[in-house]
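Usage

Read records sequentially. Each one opens with the input sequence:
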Amino acid sequence: MKQALLLVQINNNHELRNIWVNLCYLLSDSTDNRENITKLNTETLLFDLDKGLSPLAEALVEINKLDIPARILFFEEKPIWLFP
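and closes with the structure output:
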């Protein structure tokens, strides 16, 4: 199982936070994407890459357009520190 963890750096920027919340909603709005994306907290999404790269690619394109600072980490399996 391959996973990608997407972390955005919004801090106290309320404008970016609102944009990010809307983007999370749009990304997980379709039935296909709901099973691919897990929202871990307000600034972190976990993508299941075994089910396709499209949701992650879409998120990265949008984040780049909006100039939201972000980091992405890739894992072969779900990180144990996220799911004890």
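Summary fields computed downstream for this record:
- The mean pLDDT is 81.
- The chain has one domain: 3-75.
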